[in-house]
From TrEMBL, chain B:
Name of the gene this protein is made from: ihfB
Keywords annotated in UniProt: DNA recombination, DNA-binding, Transcription, Transcription regulation, Translation regulation
Assembly and interaction partners: Heterodimer of an alpha and a beta chain.
Keyword flag Protein transport: no
Family: Belongs to the bacterial histone-like protein family.
HAMAP family: IHF_beta
Name the UniProt record assigns to this protein: Integration host factor subunit beta
Annotated Gene3D superfamilies: IHF-like DNA-binding proteins
InterPro entries (alphabetical): Hist_DNA-bd, Histone-like_DNA-bd_CS, IHF-like_DNA-bd_dom_sf, IHF_beta
Domain of life from the UniProt record: Bacteria
Primary role: This protein is one of the two subunits of integration host factor, a specific DNA-binding protein that functions in genetic recombination as well as in transcriptional and translational control.
Amino acid sequence: MTKTLTRMDLSEAVFREVGLSRNESAQLVESVLGHISDALAEGEQVKISSFGTFSIRDKAARVGRNPKTGEEVPILPRRVLTFRPSHLMKERVAAGKKS
Amino acid sequence: MIRSELIHLIAEENPHLYQRDVEKIVNTIFEEIIDALANGDRIELRGFGAFSVKKRDARTGRNPRTGESVAVEEKYVPFFKTGKLLRERLNDSANEKA
């Protein structure tokens, strides 16, 4: 069955593995996510070995269409984030689901 | 930014922690995400994004070099969807610079 984990589960893991207080563990999880977000907002690529790579791609402006009304709407140029999982992550996900 | 730079930033902000503990903290977070995905679970980090596992159906592929047909089995692949806040931040900073 599929569970959904949150920040709480990550800080619980830090608490368990490192032995800091729950409060401090939660703050550290937050700063890790914060630093990754800051780098990405600056347009920087974030490459975490054996985890994966977050990169920013620039999308050009194009004419979109409202699928319901068929009306044309301009889509402004924007930046999107893509995540490319590492081989290790792909292998572990593929192997985990087989068993 | 790479893993070691991230560890360095966290270590600088937390001078009371040993470097090896900071390494362990950062590694634990990424390891926990991979473990969850390997179990088929989803990780939802509000404002940042969500990691999940997607099923790719079995299909008949083709070797692009030889044109030969090959059976590709169904497989499970990791997927990341950017959170709303982060997606907005990516575009805000682009506008500020303009």
